Amino acid sequence: MPLFRSREMPGGFPDFGIRVSLEKLFGRRLIAAAGDALPSSIYGFVLRYSLREQVYLVVVTLLSFPFLYYSLDLPKVIVNQAIGGKNFPRDVFGIEFGQIPYLVLLCGVFLLLVLINGWFKYHLNVRKGRVGERMLRRLRYELFHRLLRFPMRHFDRTATGEIIAMLTAELEPVGGFIGDAFALPIAQTGTLLTIFIFMFVQNPVLGGAAIALYPVQAYFIPKMQRRIRQLGRLRVRKMRTLSDRIGESIAAQVEIRTNAGAQHQLADIAHRLGEIYDIRFDIYNRKFLVKFLNNLINQLTPFFFFVIGGYFVIVGELSFGALVAVLAAYKELSSPWKELLDFYQNQQDVAIKYEQVVEQFHVANMLDPRLLLDEEEPIEPPQGEVEFSNVSLVDSDGLRLLDGVSASFRLGTHVALVGPSNGGKNLVPQLLARLHRPTGGQISLGGIDLASLSFAASGRLIGYVGPTTHLFSASIRDNLLLGLRHRPGGAGDSDEEARAIERERAIEEARRSGNCELDIAADWIDYAQAGVEDAAALELRLLEIVRTVGLDRDLYRFGLRSRLDPERHPDAAERLLEARRRFEQRLTGEGLVTLVERFDPEHYNASASIAANVLFGTPIGPTFANGALAENAYVCQVLDQAGLTEDLVRAGHRLAGMIVELFGELPPGHALLEEFELVGGDELTELERIVARAERGGLDTLPPADRTRLLGVALRLVAARDRLGLIDETMRQRIIAARHAFAEGLPDELRDAVEFFDPERYNAAAPVEENILFGTIVSGESDSRERVHAAIGEVLDELGLRHTVVTVGLEYPVGTGGSRLLPAQRQQVAIARAVLKRPVVLALDEATAVLDPAAETAIFDALRREFAERSIVAALSRPDAARGFDRVLVIDRGRIASEGDYRELTKPDGPLAPLLAAE
């Protein structure tokens, strides 16, 4: 089906054949709901989406009241008839009971009523919790859906921290309230009325005494709480701004440190925390005053009961059992009354929070929700021209950023945009990517108005890379595949039957919560969009693209430092074992054997630490990490049995003394400290204290914590760097014995905490490079590390495994926002991501500005070859980078100042000559 079939939907919106597809994917009800405005009040939201559940909760609540009444009345019957009664035996349903059996019968009925009332509470609480959580899930989903529809310029005026706080912490109380919205006030009010009726039945005067002070509380307490609620709203606003300020400080760590701004930041945060402190302290004062008055009034009622009830019992107008029952019933009054007061306060708070949050998500010029969703039919690439017809762009302050830009070029033309940095050239790629909506004019793609397409369509047809890139906190591979994940395809789990039940439950919960019902575990990759048939072909395509953008060498380095899962890639693991054997042969054949000390179970590795020699494997998790070995009970047991503990503590003491003597005056982070890798700069002070205490009283007088610290220092010692002769041959043999004892006696619960070295087995816990090396690089040799790495590269090339290592590098985690990558690497990932989805137009907004000129030229040459029949529109930071483009547009002051061929524009009298001269 052609993508650009345009038929009108209600309201004049051209659907381009997507409505039927959206209904299949998401359901008719979800599309309608996503386009509706959220109710302005919390009760409107509750009634719209959970009316049936609320009716059920109310009905079950009403059914519980008769059981509550009889549970209040039964103690009186037990006291008056079973304990103090006469005329036994008594007839119950034709069966005669003596006094004790009758007492047991009534107590059994009382216990049954307790269980029934408890079941009602349990059932109602569970159902209310489920309803509340479903509605909270729905609300957050609806708000996030609206967030995706915000116009881009709205994010310039909205703090990220505030949005996050609203979607998370501020909405948290809403879920609990929605479940209680009707059921709780009805339940607690009904409980109060039931108890009041019971009291009035026993004695009208006692009933009047019970309710006498409640109107006073009902009048004064809410009035006092009103100010508390106002302070609460102010606290919420202050917390939002604090959250945003902390977020800004995190994002601006480089600026803070390089401009010595830490002290001002601390003062600013302290001021904001002080404001919040004052508000919260005021809230505490008022809240506890309310509690004091509430408790005082509550304590006055028992005084009336004892005086009035005692009088009526004495004069014989009230039975003792009735007084006991009334006192027991009054004891039950405090809980529902407190619940009602708390509900009233919570209702006011939640209503305000809901209204404030929903108000923030009602934004002008939001995208139509149908524009965000994907079509089910494949996209056919357009033919013809890309045309800008009198395009203008005016910002929210009325400044004209682009003024009547008109240009056209056939698809397949490579266009460079140059000009002053503030001249408007950057806005052209942004308009193509629909980050902004033209204020006037039209942009068409193959004769189709770009504004009439869904974002799902334009997102496939146009690839965009800006000057800076935010990467998701995932692997490089996941970030590259972002542009191919439009809709779910086949099942992602091979064991589909095992997860079918769980999947059905998840779909049902998503449906009841008004959420998207698509399976996130499915295979979302659109192989056709990438121009491949299956996952294997996609792997080859990924390798091709990372070479295109010049990222393959970095991925190779990442792959050497990353881990390969032999269970998922058994063939690759076997081939890397072959690389290990081939590398060992190369070391011997080329005379490099002195550069690497291989792992041997029967030999001590002088280039590794004592800890590594004892462990003889790769730690998994923190249990046997180097810093934790000295504190590990099992390791200490092994060292004790081998007779090494005392020797290592003494060695640690001597080593600590040398460290303090040599490095005590060095500042933290000094190069010598990093070279020896024995202690960090912050540990020197503590070692000085330990050495001083040992000199005063001897090693035997040191506390266990100090001895553990010295043992930890000794375990870090590398024999090849031992300048004190602490590790002799005898100790080496004892350490090897401890190594064997450690492996043989390792408890079952700790076996998953270490992967032992085995020359015939791939070590899943170790990086690829360590698996090939299977040893340690000997320090002290000239260029030893570079020569070893070169040998590893040669072996991988011989076996054709370099691409395997690059594939492993694709799993390298990029960190928060891509923080583990350099800016140039982030841009290369973003360009590769855009290329992978094969857009018909690649829009680049100074995407290569952080690269050096040589790398930038290489990437553009490769991209022009890749896009030989498709278009590139690139805003360039350097005019010289326009060399090789088919057409150059010079944009200045929001207009096209000139256009033409690069050679013509760069002549001495050409418009690009001044810009080139300024470089």
Describe this structure in words.
The structure is a single chain. The chain has 36 helices and 16 strands. Among the domains are: 1-35, no CATH class; 42-239 and 266-360, ABC transporter transmembrane region fold, CATH 1.20.1560.10; 571-809, no CATH class. Helix 6 (160-167) packs across helix 10 (214-251), helix 8 (183-202) packs antiparallel against helix 9 and helix 22 (570-589) packs across helix 31. With 919 residues, it is α/β, with parallel strands linked by helices. It is globular. The chain has a six-stranded mixed beta sheet with strand order 8-13-14-5-15-16. Mean pLDDT is 81; it is low at 1-35.
Radius of gyration: 38 Å
Overall mean pLDDT: 81
Query: What structural class do you assign from the helix and strand content?
Result: alpha/beta
Q: Termini, distance in Å? A: 50 Å
- CATH C-level of the domain at 42-239 and 266-360: Mainly Alpha
Q: Level of helix content?
A: 55-70%
Q: State the shape.
A: globular
CATH architecture of the domain at 42-239 and 266-360: Up-down Bundle
Strand order of the largest sheet: 8-13-14-5-15-16
The beta-strand count equals 16
Low-confidence runs (pLDDT<50, min 5 residues)?
Answer: 1-35
Q: Superfamily at the CATH H level of the domain at 42-239 and 266-360?
A: ABC transporter type 1, transmembrane domain
- Find the CATH topology of the domain at 42-239 and 266-360: ABC transporter transmembrane region fold
Specify the number of helices.
36
Strand content: 5-15%
Main β sheet profile: 6 strands, mixed
